[in-house]
Design goal:
alpha/beta, Aspartate Aminotransferase, domain 1, 7-stranded mixed sheet, two-stranded parallel ribbon, 394 residues, Aspartate Aminotransferase, domain 2
Length: 394
């Protein structure tokens, strides 16, 4: 059997990380991997998470399984974080998953089961794992216009025109905030127009919200998903705790669904339980337990929010510094969008050839489409990066 297996294409981000580690140059810059780093290049454990971990060490009395879909306290705490009071509690169903990626996969499995003829619409561009997983599950994919490579902003009119061609019953995957890979987000008016179109066309929104709190604030970043929850009969949500709680290796994600009514929510909950059982049985608990403790303890929650604000403000500051440095080097404002984008990522608009030259000649590592992780920068390296970008013709 195994002799029939053929070589698989390498994951470009993992491959880039390996190349970076092998590079012996002291002044190399890693802007590729999608992990938050502080100015020292370290991914720290957040203070509130560490405090919760110490408390859990003392208080935990068993390592037995939780429920198939995870702990109810985690569901409630995360439901409040993501949705606030935008949807009635009896319309919600939950499933704890191994990471936000696991939540995306479970929702794709749910779509394939509940609507086998549906097409999944993805933004152009989107996170590369979105189409890869959809293809693995067997869901047909189409794309809608999203990012204007000239203005480096959302091309909303083209987006709406494409989605008007979607068939009733199709699913539209949206980034809740901090769009990956572009950093360009919908504004409030655009979210409102999109909600109207989705309702008119009977399209089901699927929101992947992996960076809540990394953009403009915890509540601000949830504006779109909460608007959709309040205006539409159904909503699928994949939430991740990796970034905003800094617990990447704990693999902590959550499926949240909003159904038409309580009866449908109960049926959906049963299906989510079955999908978890078939895929991995019981989810890992440690990360979810820490998140629950932080969100339900006023002191820990306040400290978490303060540290998260520091992370968010730090990335916004780096964006402004980079935009200023590029403005000084180019004598133009063509990179001004960097300061306007939100989250960890921006797509600079460089050619693949320029990206290769940056890596080979200047030790600057970024994804081939010129997506950069702003959090990979340190203030003292920003001018160096700006000069390198201009040197390759950027």
């Amino acid at each position: 059997m195994l002799e029939t297996i053929t070589p698989q294409p390498p994951d470009k981000i993992i491959q880039l990380s390996q190349m970076f580690r092998s590079d012996q140059r002291e002044n190399k810059i890693d802007l590729g991997v999608g992990v938050y780093k502080d100015v020292q290049g370290h991914t720290p454990i957040m203070r509130a998470v560490k405090a919760a971990e110490r408390r859990l060490w003392d208080e935990e009395t068993t390592k037995t399984y939780t429920a198939i879909v995870g702990d109810g306290g985690f569901h409630k705490a995360m439901g409040n974080l993501v949705l606030g009071d935008s949807a009635a509690a009896d319309r919600l169903s939950f499933a704890h998953t191994p990471g936000g990626t696991g939540a995306v996969r479970q929702i794709l499995e749910l779509i394939k089961t509940a609507a086998p003829d549906a097409t999944l619409w993805l933004s152009d561009p989107t996170w590369p794992n979105h189409p890869a997983m959809a293809n693995a599950v067997g869901i047909p994919v189409k794309t809608y216009a999203y990012f204007n490579s000239e203005t480096r902003s959302v091309q909303f009119d083209n987006m709406m025109a494409d989605l008007r061609m979607a068939e009733p019953g199709d699913v539209v995957l949206l980034h809740g905030c901090c769009h990956n890979p572009t950093g360009a987000n919908l504004n409030k008016a655009q979210w409102g127009g999109l909600a109207m179109l989705l309702k008119e066309r009977n399209l089901t929104p699927f929101v992947d919200i992996a960076y809540q709190g990394f953009g403009d604030g915890i509540d601000q970043d949830a504006y779109g998903v909460r608007l959709l929850a309040g205006k539409l009969p159904e909503l699928l949500i994949a939430a991740s705790c990796s970034k905003n709680f800094g617990i990447y290796r704990e693999r902590c994600g959550l499926v949240i669904t909003v159904s038409r009514d309580a009866g449908q929510a109960r049926l959906t909950q049963g299906m989510l339980s079955r999908l978890n059982r078939l895929n991995f049985s019981f989810p890992p608990d440690h990360g979810a337990r820490l998140v629950t403790m932080v969100l339900t303890d006023p002191a820990l929650c306040a400290d978490w929010q303060a540290e998260l604000k520091g992370i968010r403000d730090g990335m916004a500051g780096l964006r402004c510094l980079l935009a200023d440095a590029l403005r000084a080097e180019t004598g133009s404002d063509r990179y001004g969008f960097v300061a306007e984008h939100r989250g960890m990522f921006s797509r600079l608009g460089l050619t693949p050839e320029q990206v290769v030259t940056l890596r080979e000649d200047y030790g600057v590592y970024m994804i081939g489409d010129s997506r950069v992780n702003i959090a990979g920068l340190s203030p003292e390296r920003i001018k160096v990066l700006a000069r390198a970008i201009v040197a390759v013709g950027g």
